[in-house]
Amino acid sequence: MQLKTYQQKALEQLARWVAALKEASKDREEARELYGNKNKPVPEAMQNYPAAAWDSLKAQGALPATPKGGEQVIPAYINRTAACGAPIPHVCMKVPTGGGKTLLGVAALERLQTARGFVLWIVPSRAIYAQTITAFRTREHPYRAMLEQIAGGRIKLLEKDQRFTQQDVTDYLCVMLLMLPSANRQKAKEFLKIFRDSGGYESFFPAADDQQANKALAEQHADLERHEAGDLIKQSLFNTLKLPRPTVILDEAHKAYGRNDQNNQEFVQSVNRLNPRFVLELSATPKIDISNILVNIGGTELKSEAMIKLPIKIYSRTNSDWQNTLAATKEKLNELQGAAIKLQQRANRYIRPIALVRVQRTGREQRGSGLVHAEDARAYLIQNLAVPARHIRVQSSEQKELAGEDLLDALSEVRWIITKDALKEGWDCAFAYILALLDNTKAETALTQLVGRVMRQPQARAVEEKTDTGDLLNRCYVYCYNEDVGDVVKWVRAGLEREGLTGLGHSDVGAKESGVSLQKIKRRKRYKKLDIFLPQVLHKDKAKWRLLDYERDILGALDWDALDAGAVEALGDGEALEELRATVDIQGEEKISEAEIETGEALTLDYFVRRLRNDVPNPWQAARMAARFIKRHKEEDAARLLQNRRALADALQRRVSEEIDNQAERLFRDKIKNDEIRFRLETDKRLNYAIEKTLEVAVADNEARLYRQGRPLQRSLFKPVYESGLNGLEKDCALYLDKSNAIHWWHKIAARQEYGIQGWRRHRVYPDFIACKKDDGKLLILETKGLHLKGNEDTEYKEKLLQTLEEVYQHALHRGEMKIGEPPAAYRILLENGWDEKVDRIIAED
Predict the structure, then answer these.
(1) Of the candidates 558, 551, 654, 663, the residue with the CA atom closest to the CA atom of residue 608
(2) Mean pLDDT across the stretch 298-305?
(3) What pLDDT is stored for residue 587 in this prediction?
């Protein structure tokens, strides 16, 4: 991999520091010999050779200045001492987000002349751990290739549960990845495996019965931990790591340091206790009172090397809603995709722009709380903006839909990623161009955490074309709503500072406020006084009627005791688990004993019950179903059962959901048959849905109006009709209805804001159009669907529900249960292929 200029300079600075260390160490040894002969102690200034090396570079003017108290200063060296008493050389490379910290850390090992020995690579989170270990294991990855070159092919990658020997440390470059919590634990350390006397490291320690050798080792390494009873040294990973005196790389070191000085010092001491021979911090925002900043790379260096997309264009829509923000994001993404296609055609360079969407909720049980949920955003993209479902992924603690997905692969179809917190760190995709914030109440926090995720340049180089294509693809974009644009700019700049991107000018963060005002649109004059009522799904409550309540009238009326998930016919191979030690004992239907495995994971009844929370409101019923489901597999091998726990949990949730849906549909139809559920217009108009005579809509500046062949629409119930409220299929359908002489009027229902139909599932069905025929006043209630949704489970449900309710409506009409003059109605779903022919057939029906 070709290093950037600033990366080469950073490594040259590290090499300069290493040379100064050698010189200072040589002076220390000479001083020891000189003063030792005279029986005098070595002066402290000579003993602390890292500080001497630092002062040497400082005197040469080779150290970067750092802001402190409003001034640029070069701080004095901050000392560290290992548990064995030796001084620890430790320095920090300050590298912004997107600057290649991990690459610099790997390349630094060559400058530190670490071809053999032990390297401890400490990371702050599971996400970064997974990303790093994958890169180190992949032989085609530049990081792994560089490690192979440094070690001459003799590289051994380790995780903390893997054993290694003293001979391995002698013959190989051993690199162990360690999570921050494992290294930074001051309390309850006996519960961590790193401190346990677990065996497997015998080559580093004398035999337990060799008292003389154990005593000698204890005298040589007084800091080694011992058993409480006696002086026998623990054969723990913690003690083993101390003996070879590892080189420690602290990746994303700023995550280890917080505002609490006590915690900061605890982490420093945790690292010092490992007896490192060298500590290198890689940090975007190091602590000046903790870290010795040897290299200070700012945002300007990354900008000059075209490593990041600049400027950042910010769009804040006032008086808007999250749906409008999402629609604007799609419009920009389409524009970027068009530019990317042109780039590939002209320069054979592949880019697939991706939008990151931040929502307020992602958990299954949190939908419907009034806050923007990941599934709300997904549904709006698919149903209202015609985004294919295969282009969307949700990434959260529960839904890891990006798992195993190579986003840079040309075969990947991902263009939308919806998340809340899962991409704050340890995630990197240079194809991410747009950040859409649907959580306007916490925009500042979201911006400071996520702004760096959309700034990396694909292939770490800019689009060089002096065209609109280059202008579009060299920038990144932030969309939010109902925020003061000046505040958003301020927050973005603060976010850049937090990501270490210092020094960028005001021109690098631009903003455009797209004014969105709430406007009232009125009915056309000829429809102004027309009362239009639509039937709603009603439920009988003693002698009266009210709107159907799903929780009360459907879920509450199910026969939960009859629900049974059955069993899985055959288990697959599942995931391979190393060193599995598990027993599964099922006694009765409500108790499952824990089955612990090497990773600390456990198989419990609660593991399965949690998967049912979104479907089964009663936790006791969920526990009963889960226990019965697991009991049916008790003959399976314990290890096999544990290996397949995820597949089993998915099967349980799927089967319970199917059983609930089937029973709910039967219940719904039985209640219709017994006249407990009605769908018809009632004489009590309060039970019907009345279409308003004025509507309030969010309209952006210069919002385009919908025209038919350059002329204003003639039959829309309201005017004007704005293009932003319709996707492509809806626009075609609207124009088709408007030109039909058989149509009296038509209306596009605002998405999820107006008329909705409750069925036997939780979420309402919201039709797209209502149209009225001229000759008989027949109402057409139409739901449009893209062809990619044909056969989709949701589409099939809507088709069944609308067909059922149309039959109920027509039956009531024929039996004379509705008052004279009430119009018939047709409820249909229009698929993208042949929808116009279907509309013609509906219009022609009697």
Answers:
(1) 654
(2) 77
(3) 27
- Say how far apart CA 447 and CA 411 lie, in whole Å: 30
pLDDT at site 665: 92
| pLDDT confidence band for 34 (50 / 70 / 90) | very low
Q: Which residue has the higher pLDDT, 391 or 270?
A: 391
Residue type, 62: A
Please report, rounded to a whole number, the percentage of residues in the chain having pLDDT higher than 90.
9
Q: pLDDT tens for residues 734-793?
A: 888 898 888 888 888 876 567 888 899 887 888 888 888 887 777 888 888 665 556 567
SS3 256: coil
Q: Is 131 in contact with 426 (CB distance < 8 Å)?
A: yes
Q: Which residues contact 37 (CB under 8 A, 6 or more apart)?
A: none
List alpha helices for 98-188, DSSP H. Answer: 101-111, 126-137, 142-151, 166-171, 180-183
Between CA 197 and CA 335 the distance in angstroms is 60
Query: What is the band of 118 on the pLDDT scale with cuts at 50, 70, 90?
Result: very high
Continuous H helices in 319-442: 322-347, 374-383
Q: Quick one: pLDDT band at residue 351, thresholds 50, 70, 90? A: very high
Helix, strand, coil share (%) of the chain residues, nearest 5:
40, 20, 40
Q: What is the DSSP letter of 765?
A: B
Pairing of strands 432-437, 354-358: parallel
- Structure confidence at residue 175 as a pLDDT band (50, 70, 90): very high
Q: Which residues of 318-341 are buried (b: 16+ CB within 10 A; e: fewer)?
A: bebbbbbbbbbbbebbeebeebbe
User: Are residues 454 and 419 in contact, defined by beta-carbon separation less than 8 angstroms?
Assistant: no
Q: Which two tokens stand for residue 401?
A: 């839909």
- The pair of three-digit structure tokens given for residue 265, joined into one six-digit string: 């010092």
User: Does the structure show a pLDDT above 70 at 30?
Assistant: no
Contact between residue 225 and residue 233 where contact means Cβ atoms under 8 Å apart? yes
Amino acid making up residue 398: E
- Between the two ends of the chain, the Cα-to-Cα distance in Å is 72
Peptide bond into 89 cis (omega under 30): no
Query: What mean pLDDT is predicted for residues 263-275?
Result: 80
Q: Please list, in sequence order, all residues whose beta carbon lies within 8 angstroms of the beta carbon of residue 485, skipping any fewer than 6 positions away.
A: 314, 316, 511, 512, 513
Residue among 89, 68, 74, 84 nearest 22 (CA): 89
For residues 308 and 302, the answer to whether their CB atoms sit within 8 Å is yes
Query: Phi/psi of residue 134, each to 5°?
Result: -65, -45
pTM assigned to the model: 0.56
pLDDT at 391 over 90: yes
Element (H, E) at 317: strand 312-317
The one-letter code for the residue type at 452 is G
Nearest to residue 309, comparing CAs of 131, 509, 139?
509
pLDDT band at 607; cut points 50, 70, 90: low
State how far the Cα of 358 lies from the Cα of 365, in Å rounded to an integer: 18
Alpha carbon 17 to its chain centroid, in Å, reads 39
Read off the tokens for 568. Answer: 């899985």
CA angle 11, 246, 178 (to 5 degrees): 90
> Whose CA is closest to 783, among 749, 808, 815?
749
Q: Concatenate the DSSP letters of all residues of 794-832 into one string.
A: HHHHHHHHHHHHHHHHHHHHHTT-S-TTPPPEEEEEEES
What mean pLDDT is predicted for residues 125-129? 79
**At residue 393, what is the residue type?**
R
Q: Does position 629 have pLDDT exceeding 70, yes or no?
A: yes
CB burial string 73-104: b at 16+ within 10 A, e below: eebebbebebbeeebbbbbbbbbbbbbbbbbb
For residue 122, pLDDT over 70 is answered with yes
Residue of 210 and 574 predicted with greater confidence: 210
